[in-house]
Design brief:
Annexin V, domain 1, PH-domain like, 7-stranded antiparallel beta sheet, 3-stranded antiparallel beta sheet, 10 strands, zinc, zinc ion binding, GTPase activator activity, Arf-GAP with dual PH domain-containing protein 1
Length: about 190
């Protein structure tokens, strides 16, 4: 029973997602279903569209492995889903999609130091072939500081704990003990 709608997209949305939609006004114009005035053209547009029509359009090329957040997921996950779907239109045009399934990703994250708590830029490599996430202390290092097997890895958003809205806690097994690293990136994408 959503009380909000994006009259520019023709969809009904929950209260939590309405705030995210309001933050992208160039794409989504939000109104209350019960409190705001609706003109005939807006009502007609909503009636001729709706969530199922929007889903068919905006998710037509969504990769089958892509996680679709629900209202129970954290704000960051829902925001990036909404931005990917409606703002970047990644699931309409496959050429706009990040190479999620390319099997190899390399980039830099800010990692919190174990001793001093200072965040430093570190190179991370995600390799499907090796089934591992690796990070390096130096950009030109030949050997990784840590190799985390994907099958023994868990990642959760922890913005409050890390002090960044895109904060991530990565928990993994090493030598039969649980280890944690804390990372973030300026871009939630």
């Amino acid at each position: 029973d959503p009380d909000w709608a994006s009259h520019s997209l023709g969809i009904f949305i929950c209260l939590n997602c309405s705030g995210i939609h309001r933050n992208i006004p160039q794409v989504s114009k939000v109104k209350s279903v019960r409190l705001d005035d609706w003109d005939d053209a807006q009502v007609e547009f909503m009636a001729s569209n709706g969530n199922n029509v929007a889903k068919a359009k905006y998710e037509s090329k969504m990769p089958p492995f892509y996680y679709k957040p629900t209202f129970l997921d954290c704000q960051l996950l829902r925001e990036q889903w909404i931005r990917a779907k409606y703002e970047r239109k990644e699931f309409i045009y496959s050429e706009k999609q990040e190479p999620y399934s390319a099997g190899y990703r390399e980039g830099f994250l800010w990692k919190r130091g174990r001793d001093n708590g200072q965040f430093l830029s570190r190179k991370f490599v995600l390799s499907e072939r090796e089934g591992a996430l690796k990070y390096f202390n130096k950009n030109d290092a030949k050997e990784p500081k840590a190799i985390m097997k994907i099958e023994h890895l868990n990642a959760t958003f922890q913005p409050a704990k890390i002090g960044n809205p895109h904060g991530l806690q990565i928990t993994y097994l090493k030598d039969n003990s649980t280890r944690n690293i804390f990372v973030y990136h300026e871009d939630g994408k």
